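Write out the 3D structure for:
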Amino acid sequence: MNVFELVESNVRSYCRAFPVVFQTAENAKMYGESNEAYIDFLAGAGALNYGHNPPFIKERLIQYIQSNGVMHGLDMYTTAKRDFIETFTKHILLPRNLNYKMQFCGPTGTNAVEAALKLARKVKGRTGIFSFMGGFHGMSLGSIAATGNLEQRAGAGIPLQNVTFMPYPYGYAESFDTIEYMESILMDPNSGIEKPAAILVETVQAEGGIIVAPTEWLIRLRKLCTEHDILMICDDIQVGCGRAGQFFSFERAEIVPDIVTLSKSIGGYGLPLSLVLLKPELDIWKPAEHNGTFRGNQLAFVAAMAAIEYREEIYLEKQVEEKEAYIEDFLVNEIMPIHEDIKIRGIGMIWGIDFTNVTNDSEVVKRIARACFDNKLIIERVGRNDLVLKIMPPLTIEMEVLQEGCAVIKQAIVSHIEAQIHS
């Protein structure tokens, strides 16, 4: 038994699927202690859009540390925070005509969701939230109350209240109009469901199985929120920062949420940082009404600012567009023909291979993922019963490495699907 198994809590998870002690990493590859290379199609669960140890950002961090820059400052004014705010405003918000104030929360995504829900309730004076079946928003009590997975919810140990789940446009819910359904609930005095303070939505349900909400659906959802005086909160923690193509995942619908939550890759270098973007009129917080010792990671401010400059220097959106085209073409022409019931879904550089109609045995997909790992590819399973393989490499992955990783996936699927057919 190694020291991890001996001492670390049973709650550990990723290390169970990828049982190697990693030592170094560079862009889209991680290296074990024996220097064996693994292609990374997990990207820190979305925290490493710019890859492992990008030199441009690393150099900024080294310079800041060597200059004795402030490393911890609560929410005090610092040059690092100012530089990030000014850079984010100039390069991200203003070009998109977005007028948001920024709230820096504790350093994880769930902290941002908690703050957003708390603020929405304070602004509207209502306790309820609408969330969506299949959604994932975090593991602390407020955010897990808005998360659909029953096993994860059970871990809370107490009743999770004040959230009503609505159908996402997927599966059985594709057969009827989910926006019309919500409209009927809000208009019906006998629905038994009170008007919520906010509707919390992922434009792409990542952990839910890579389910991309139709653009028209998002437009109608925005209209529904406006007409019923409900705040629209977009959880862009995993699919923001360029993952879906443009910087914000909601840009394709040309909508403006009232509140946006960001974390993961906003930290630039895998460093913990989260923030809430909120329309100025919603900023009714009293000083210290929502706080935290680590609200604003100084190193992450430095890395995040450098990341914004880096993405423009390397024309990252154009790179994502080219790699998206490759991934989609590969999945359509190389993976779907393996079995007629394989489904693919995705956008930008987050894609899913769905085996739901191929098998209801999650062990089959688990074995496929393990075969990928045995052939030096890190890839995780998501969706209902973990029946979806999630392709989510760093946005900066070299094309030849992307192709190599995709070839490993095909080999693993072919061998295991054929074995199932002949069993």
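The domain at 3-53+317-422 is CATH 3.90.1150.10 (Aspartate Aminotransferase, domain 1).
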